[in-house]
Design brief:
Elements (H helix, E strand, L loop, with lengths): L6 H26 L4 H11 L6 H29 L4 H20 L5 H14 L2 H10 L65 H30 L1 H10 L1 H10 L3 H30 L3 H18 L7 H14 L2 H8 L2
Keywords: Membrane, Transmembrane, Transmembrane helix
């Protein structure tokens, strides 16, 4: 019988998930139209009253928006796994909600309501019922608030009925007490949350390996093909950029030439190919069950999430996949499986 989830945890996960989804959509739309004249003019009009140089601030601002997008996606994923009792996701959601509240408070009165919502999420995740529920879900037995721990007393010697010392029968000095008959049900092992399965790898580990393997395989093949085209057909690609009016206007708004764009693409896809190959190696390493394989896959997933932000909106899929892999590898049964060696 599963332990019912407290209402405070449910509300926190709903608020965090909806806030993350809404923020992801808004930030994605902002990045998708970043190179348009309308967005650039709107950003310039907002920065000029503050005395900031738009040409110097806009590149940094774009990186900030990318980081916020990664954070909003992470908040959405953390909300889902927090609702299932995942302790690391609860901590991650609390940190993101707290940072979001601080950021909204810095914007003034306009960010007061979102800041209150972020603080409310943190409070709901750490109420007394929430702490007890997470303790139970992660294999710990919490003490009820306001009660002292009970110390089990020594077991009462069992004496069969009809013998001296049995209930209703007087005990005789020096009379040996018969032990109870063996009952297999009393000695059965009760599986605890996070315990290892009787055979094979845990489900979270299998899911993490499946997602990372597919993502890095697709990334390696796709980036390899594009990189080959950029290197072998550099002049043709540059000519296509120069002859296409729409692409040329985008290059002009970004302040780079077609040749510089091809060079930048070559470096980006080359870097993505390297990360994908490292990811495949880390996935195979983790599949062996080595404890260092866990660290390798987690580190590569973090690097992947950061590098994929450069390739938005396509990189959104790899950001989401990297966060799910990290969450799955952080589950207690996954960590226990890697520590078994």
């Amino acid at each position: 019988m599963s332990t019912p989830r407290p209402r405070s945890v449910t509300l926190a996960c709903v608020y965090g998930g909806l806030g993350g989804v809404l923020a992801t959509v808004a930030l994605y739309e902002a990045l998708a139209g970043w190179g348009s004249i309308e967005v650039q003019e709107a950003l310039r009009q907002g920065l000029e009253p503050l005395g900031a140089d738009p040409d110097a601030v806009l590149p940094t601002l774009r990186w900030v928006v990318m980081a916020l997008l990664v954070g909003s996606i992470a908040a959405t994923v953390f909300s889902f796994f927090t609702a299932r009792g995942h302790q690391s996701s609860r901590i991650g959601l609390s940190v993101l909600a707290g940072l979001g509240a601080a950021g909204f408070l810095a914007t003034g009165v306009a960010g007061l309501l979102p800041a209150i919502l972020g603080l409310l999420i943190v409070y709901l995740l750490w109420t007394a019922p929430a702490r007890e529920w997470f303790a139970v879900m992660n294999g710990r037995t919490p003490l009820s608030l306001g009660t002292a721990p009970s110390v089990p007393s020594a077991p009462t010697p069992f004496t069969p009925a009809g013998q001296p010392g049995a209930p209703g029968q007087p005990a005789q000095p020096g009379q040996p007490v018969q032990p109870p008959p063996y009952d297999p049900a009393q000695h059965a092992t009760v599986p605890q949350p996070g315990a290892l399965p009787p055979g094979g790898r845990p489900r979270p580990v299998g899911l993490a390996l499946l997602i990372s393997g597919i993502a890095y395989l697709v990334g390696a093949l796709g980036s390899g093909v594009v990189l080959l085209a950029l290197v072998a057909l550099r002049d043709e690609v540059t000519k296509q950029y120069e002859q296409n009016d729409l692409l040329q206007r985008q290059l002009d708004s970004a302040g780079i030439t077609a040749g510089e764009m091809v060079t930048l693409g070559t470096w980006l896809f080359g870097g993505w190919l390297v990360i994908s190959l490292l990811g495949l190696g880390a996935t195979a390493w983790a599949a062996s069950g080595a404890p260092t394989g866990w660290w390798a896959l987690v580190v590569v997933s973090v690097v992947t999430a950061g590098f994929a932000a450069l390739g938005l909106p396509v990189g959104l899929v790899w950001i989401l996949g990297a966060i799910v892999v990290i969450v799955q590898l952080s589950r207690p049964e996954a960590k226990a499986w890697f520590r078994r060696a």
